[in-house]
Amino acid sequence: MKESITKADTLKIIINKCEVHFPEIFLRASERMKMLFGLDLMEVDRTNHCYRLLIKLGLIYDEIKHSEGNLPKTNILILILNVIFMKGNCATEDKAWEVLNVTGIYSGMNHCIFGEPRKLITEDLVKEKYLEYWQVFNTDPAGFEFLLILRAHAETTKIKVLEFLAKVNGTDPSFFTSQYEDALQDEEERA
Fold first, then answer.
1. CA of 89: how far to CAs of 15, 144, 147, 186, in Å?
2. How does pLDDT run across 90-130, given as a tens digit for each residue?
3. Per its UniProt entry, which superkingdom is the organism in (predicted)?
4. Is the model's pLDDT at 26 over the cut of 60?
5. 48 vs 28, 124, 146, CA distance in Å?
């Protein structure tokens, strides 16, 4: 959402007797949003304790909308981009769902933010030209893959995706040797 939130707004949600724990609750919630969804909670007004959610990878926050609502869906895209990049720029649908299931996002199960995630991923993100989704030939049962396409490549970089993943895992991007080399080569080509 494009609206800032204030500490006072947040405290309304927290029970009065938990108010003393607000800084710790707020810090942990902020860290989890950063790790799971690539969202950075940044203080924009220190006097009034006003905060805004920012996308870490540079994706255009406002344009990814699910047909069932207006909440931005970049967090699910960030998770899929990480899977695609770590799997050599192409990931099976099964591998993507394996990662999404860990975060509580399941195919065919309505999600409070994403609605029906399979439709969001295989139709909406494909239609918005962030992903390519295609059937793998000669697979029984039929298998599908995700590929990164131009729009996602134009809005973020492999190094940003890798830095995000490294931060989530508490390591340095160079720890992922082959992906790090690929990201550096991508940076050189962009220059």
1. 46, 14, 6, 12
2. 999 999 999 999 888 999 898 877 788 999 899 988 888 88
3. Eukaryota
4. yes
5. 21, 38, 43
The answer, yes or no, to whether residue 16 has pLDDT greater than 50, is yes
Which residue shows structure tokens 């396409």?
149
| CB burial string 148-174: b at 16+ within 10 A, e below | beebbeebbbbbbbbbbbbeeeeeebe
Q: Where are the beta strands (DSSP E) in the chain?
A: 5-6, 39-45, 50-55, 90-92, 131-136, 143-148
Encode pLDDT of 32-54 as tens digits.
777 666 677 777 777 877 777 76
The C-alpha atoms of residue 84 and residue 95 are separated, in whole angstroms, by 9
User: DSSP secondary-structure letter at 19?
Assistant: G
Instruction: Give the full edge-to-edge strand order of the sheet including 131-136.
Output: 90-92, 143-148, 131-136
Residue whose tokens read 């199960």 = 109
**43 neighbors 49 (Cβ within 8 angstroms):** yes
Alpha-carbon span 52 to 143, nearest angstrom: 40
CA distance 102 to 167: 18
Among 79, 72, 38, smallest CA distance to 58 is for 38
CA distance 132 to 185: 22
